[in-house]
Structures are given as C-alpha cells and as structure tokens.
Amino acid sequence: MHNADRTAIGVDLGEYNLYTASPVKMPDSSGAHTICGEEICARLDELRDRVTALLYEGADRETIVASVTRRRDGLLEEIDAAAREICEYANAYDRPVLVTEDSHYQPDLWTWLTAPNAHRGTAWLLPTAHLRLRAVADECGLEVATVPEAYSSQECHACGVIGDRPDGETFRCTNPHCHVETLCADYNAAKVLARRYYPGRRCAYRPPHSVSRGEPPTLVAERRSQRLQRPP
Ligand SMILES: [Zn+2]
User: Fold this and answer.
1) Ligand 1 geometric centre to CA of 98 (Å)
2) Where exactly are the structural domains of the chain?
3) What's the chain's Rg over C-alpha atoms?
4) Ligand 1 centroid vs 147 CA: distance in angstroms?
5) Signed CA dihedral, 45, 122, 39, 167: sign only
6) Which of 46, 104, 171, 223 is 20 to 30 Å from 141 by CA-CA measure?
7) Distance (Å, whole) CA 200 – CA 202
8) In this structure, is the dihedral angle defined by the CA atoms of residues 212, 216, 217 and 223, taken in order, positive or negative?
9) 189 C-alpha vs ligand 1 centroid, how far in Å?
10) Cα 155 to ligand 1 centre (Å)
11) Sign of the dihedral defined by the CA atoms of residues 200, 160, 196, 1, in that order
C-alpha cells in the first residue's frame, strides 16, 4: 500500500459541473468543490454560431481563424482559472494527489465548430479541461494520477455496486444493504475516482443475471506519470 498515506482527490469532469473534486472520505457533498461549466458551454455555443455566420457570409479563412483564436484563448483562461481553483482546493489536504479518468481524447475545436453532429463536451471541452487541469497541477507542483474510467459514473462510491441515474444529475444506489440512497452523480463519480487510486480497490460490479463467475471487470487503480500536452 505504497500510496496509502496520500490523500487522493477525485476530479470528475462534465459540462454542467466542469470540475467536481472530492477526497474519498468526504462525509457529504457540501465539502466537495464544484465549478459550474454552464457559462463556458454557452460561450462555446456562441462561438459555433459565430463561425456558422462567418462561413455563411463568405468570410475569408484569416478572419475566421482570428475570431476563433481570440475566443478560444478567452475560454482557455476561464478553464485555467477553474483548474487553479481545483488545485488550491486539493492543496489544502495532506499529501494530495489529483485523480482523474484515464481518458485519451484529444481536443478538436474545429470539429465542434463545423461538424453537424459534434458534441461540444467530447469534441473539445472535456479533453481540454482534463489537459489543462493536469498542466495547471504540474505548474502548482501537485501530483496527478489517472485510474480506469469504466463504470466510474455508474458505480456507487460506498459499495461498488452499479446504480442508476434517474434524472441524469442524480445517482441512486440499487444495493438494498448500502447506506447510500441518492446523491449528486458528479460528487459520487469524484469519490469513485478517488477510491480507485488506492491499491486493491476494484469495481464490485456483477451483471445481475450473469451465471459466469470470477470475471468481474477488474478496475485496479493504477498510477501514471504522464507529461502533458498543451491543447491546440
Ligand atoms: Zn451503494
């Protein structure tokens, strides 16, 4: 248990809550730290509308690139400020380490701005928020680690059983023997990620009607030291 003395701070990323951070032992969500992403999402929507209008007007490439670059830089400043707030929150704990999902999506702003079926979160916002959080943590001297992302938004942080999401924002544990009933889904996910940092923490998920034995998804927490890439 080489990292048992570290305080893992799980950070869940989303559009409504850009960052939700919590250590595994936080007694309730009032001690977690959340940064709302709604304004950034609205600005990304505006930027897409702006590019659509420029393309419709037949604006030249230089004009479009200059417009996008200026607004993108403003968005990155906002995301960096949010990431800094998360790092300050984490640094208040003893021997903190930030724990995020092991995802490798690369941000692609042009996909969001021009592809008809693009999704702003997966195309740009979430990969960017992930990379910037790790970059800012690096600047702050805060250690980072990633853990497997599978089921992290569905698993109960307390008992490990897969629950459900009755309204998207709420997580509900379906295990009748668990003390968790319902709670904020993002807060639950942050705690699941923090929990996975420690050795031996495996997902307890069993398919409800499965007859196979001994092959649950093994989600052994792992640490990685990854150098960071700046978003384009
Ligand atoms: Zn539970």
Assistant:
1) 23
2) 7-148
3) 19
4) 20
5) positive
6) 104
7) 6
8) negative
9) 12
10) 8
11) negative
- Closest of 60, 137, 135, 127 to residue 91, by C-alpha: 137
The highest-level CATH class for domain 7-148 is alpha beta
Cα(195) to centroid of ligand 1, in Å? 13
- Ligand 1 centroid, distance to 218 Cα (angstroms): 18
Find how far residue 25's CA is from the centre of its chain.
Answer: 19
Q: Is the dihedral of CA 195, 196, 198, 199 positive or negative?
A: positive
Ligand 1 centre to CA of 149 (Å) is: 18
- Between residues 229 and 128, the one the model is more confident about: 128
13-31: pLDDT as tens digits: 999 999 999 998 888 888 9
What confidence tens digit (pLDDT) does each residue in 156-203 have?
Answer: 999 999 999 988 899 999 999 999 999 999 999 999 999 999 977 555
Q: How far does the centroid of ligand 1 lie from the alpha carbon of residue 212, in Å?
A: 22
d(CA 232, CA 227): 16
User: Helix, strand, or coil here: 170?
Assistant: strand
The tokens for 159 are 């008992």
